[in-house]
Amino acid sequence: MKERAERAIADCKRIALMTEEPGRTTRRYLTEPTHAVHALLRERMEALGMKVAVDAVGNLRGMWRPRGTGAKRLLLGSHIDTVPDAGAFDGVLGVMLAIEWVGIAKELRLPLAIEVIAFSEEEGMRYGVPFLGSRAVTGTFDAAMLMWRDADGETMDAAMRAFGLDPAKIEDAAIGDDVIGFVELHIEQGPVLEAEGIPVAVVEGITGQTRLTLQFTGQANHAGTTPMHLRRDALAAAAEWITKVEKQICKTASTTDPGIVATVGRVVAEPNAGNVIAGSAELSFEIRYGASAARHRWTKKLLANAEAIAKRRGIGFDWAERLDQQTVRMDRRLSTMLKAAVRACGYPVRTIPSGAGHDAMVMAARVPTAMLFLRSPGGISHHPTESVLEEDVEASLNVGREFLVRLANRVG
Ligand code: GLV
Ligand code: MN
Ligand code: MN
Questions:
Q1: How many angstroms separate the alpha carbon of residue 382 from the centre of ligand 2?
Q2: Closest alpha carbon to 306 in 265, 257, 273, 264
Q3: What is the Cα–Cα distance from 394 to 146, expressed in whole angstroms?
Q4: Residue pLDDT, tens place only, 272-306
């Protein structure tokens, strides 16, 4: 497994160089470097004898179907888009490991059909909405999104066409009933496994999340001539609300709803100039918590706070929901099989919840779904220092071998 682990890590590092921004890894949905990623994945898959195609939403899909296997296939995969200034392993490692799992199944001559999916979009960076790839695969892609625009004003429809895709064919990307289930491998992106000295863990469930965009609209004006009490500063209003969010969540929500988290990670002020009062400020907002009712209650309360702040300051306020994804549990049967595989390899059997979102949470609504986490050194992710230990990658491949053998026995 050492050679497989080394290759998977080296490929992740090569793919990290395929980027929109020189010097750092940023690869949003269907941007130019995605073509290079597809080329590398295609090469890896075809070398194994897989049949490769790109679906209409831009997922690269490789099919491994040994002669004599039944109609049903196992789906494996993760995503290949990234956050800005990303690490090399979030998503991409899950794709490379999926390909290595196919290599293992081939080597063992397992009578198991496997489709590897490199999901085109999971982070929600380009259109403010995540899981575009897995939504198409599960038949839940909302065509109204095609008219949404990115920061450069390009619609999703136009971006797809520019990439060489036909948005009219998105429905064809959906899976049928000939699927055994879906397994996603992913780095933990948190500190728990490292603290406990454990290489891998089986995911129990994935925390629900709601994402919004908010818009404060004031009046741009001269920074030198406009007295403080006569300003309608959209950025100051946004700032007041951001600190209100932090206070409400830290002081109040965390006592009634422990573990709840909320984040404003993106602010776009216009015209964004040092000597001009901001005329508008657009913010991202996301809130994550298991219970949907509490998540919705806090969202409503924080929106009421934003409205009150805007009103007091004489500023316009508007918002739109981008995502409301409920908490999902992973499939018991597939997870039990993963745990048995972990045990058979001699690793501690640890289960863990996921605070991060994954394509698995969309897939889980359609097919039995399970996830395996690999320890994240330093607990760091969504950052260029994100890493993984080679020994843990080997561990995940050993687990893969045990899991695939068990699954092939059940299916065959
Ligand atoms: C995915 O990275 C997420 O935002 O949880
Ligand atoms: Mn991510
Ligand atoms: Mn990810």
A1: 6
A2: 264
A3: 40
A4: 999 999 999 999 999 999 999 999 999 999 999 99
**C-alpha distances in Å from residue 200, one per residue of 114, 365, 384:** 22, 24, 22
Res 251 pLDDT > 90: no
Ligand number with the minimum distance to the CA of 84: 2
- Specify which residues 267 forms β-bridges with: 283
As a whole-number percent, the residues of the chain with pLDDT over 90 amount to 96
pTM: 0.91
Regarding the beta carbon of 123 and ligand 1, being less than 6 Å apart is answered yes
Calculate what percentage of the chain has a pLDDT beyond 70.
Answer: 100
**What atom of ligand 1 comes closest to residue 90's alpha carbon?**
2
Atom nearest to 209 CA in ligand 1: 5
Count CB atoms within 10 A of the CB of residue 59: 24
For the stretch 168-178, pLDDT in tens is 999 999 999 99
Ligand 2 center to 186 CA (angstroms):
10
CA of 382 to the centre of ligand 3 (A): 9
Tell me how far the alpha carbon of residue 407 lies from the centroid of ligand 3, in angstroms.
Answer: 25
User: Are the C-beta atoms of 199 and 392 separated by less than 8 Å?
Assistant: yes
Bridge-based pairing state of the strands 369-374 and 179-187? parallel
What is the predicted pLDDT for the residue at 284? 96
How far away, in angstroms, is 231 Cα from ligand 2 center? 38
- Which residue from 121, 123, 186 has its CB within 8 A of the most atoms of ligand 1, so it is best to mutate? 123
Q: Could you tell me if the CB of 357 is within 6 A of ligand 1?
A: yes
CA of 274 to the centre of ligand 2 (A): 32
**Cis bond upstream, residue 271 (ω within 30):** yes
Query: What average pLDDT score do residues 310-336 get?
Result: 97
Handedness of CA 400, 401, 406, 407 (dihedral sign): positive
Other CB atoms within 10 A of residue 400 CB: 27
Residue 361 in contact with ligand 1 by CB distance below 6 A: no
Q: Is 356 in the pocket of ligand 1 (CB under 6 A)?
A: yes
How much is the CA Rg of the chain, to the nearest whole Å? 23
Residues in the chain: 412
Cα–Cα distances in angstroms (integers) from residue 190 to residues 45, 176, 352, 378, in the given order: 30, 34, 11, 8
In this prediction, residue 412 carries a pLDDT of 63
| Protein residues with C-beta less than 5 angstroms from the ion ligand 2 | 90
> Would you say residue 398 has pLDDT above 80?
yes
